[in-house]
Amino acid sequence: MKRIYLFTFLLCLFGQGFAQTLIDGIYYNLDADNLTAEVTRTPSGVAKYSGGITIPESVTYEGKEYSVTSIGESAFYSCYSLTSITIPNSVTSIGDRAFQVCSGLTSITIPNSVTSIGGEAFYGCSGLTSITIPNSVTSIGDEAFRSCSGLTSLTIPNSVTSIRSYAFSGCTGLTSLTIPNSVTSIGGRAFSGCTDLTSITIPNSVTYIGYYAFEGCSGLTSIVVEEGNPVYDSRESCNAIVKTFANELVAGCKTTVIPDGVTSIGYYAFSGCIGLTSITIPNSVTSIGDGAFYYCSGLTSLTIPNSVTSIGESAFYGCTDLTSITIPNSVTSIGDGAF
Asked: Is the pTM of this model over 0.85?
């Protein structure tokens, strides 16, 4: 039975024209049909690569030249001794977990030929301090730079349309970030645990923000949402301000700008923002959701515009420093425990 399984595996592998080969110290999957090569992991799966590595644009095997077009899944996984790597212009994709937990990696060059960075590609590369993502990249996978604690700055190119879940979660050294107008969605917990991140601007192109996107960003003091963006939230397609559900989320946020066009402030939108002292609600808002300002203990004043018709349950529960509030005649319902 084992022989049959082995034969089937070899038939599937080589029947498609693939063969794993060691050439000049690097393992490749060679596609004889298309004359392309993919950098792959060692056959045993044990981390082998160390020091600085330069991947060539092409390799020659048995008289045939193969173009190196991709870095495969887990190709350099757990190569703790890998310090730098140069990727050639022939490479178009970096696979899932390609450099995961390469903690010794301090520099890497990603060429303009790369169009996609796989999930967890640089997860745990704690020694990586900066990285430039070229304009050719259109997708960055889930957890691509998660726990890159040494990363202090990053520029996301205009070619990227989405920031996936946990993409930069745990990047505790990240202090600044520019989100380009090309981005339309920010995944759940995308920046959770980025404790040194102090400010962020969300462009008007963003129409989706996942749950807990900024959870645990204790150093964040300002969130600015550009005008002209009517949708900021993933919950039930409501036109609500940025989701900040968890109590610890953006706890240091002092000022938040809600632009005209927002029609509702969703449930628990600013829950636990203890540093929030004032907020202006535009005339476009018609409803304030349940727990919207729950335990915003630093909030001292608030003006509710005439456009608001309902205030949800526990909307201002625990706002211990709120001394006065004016409720306009437009309000027809106030939920239980609102104040």
From this structure: no
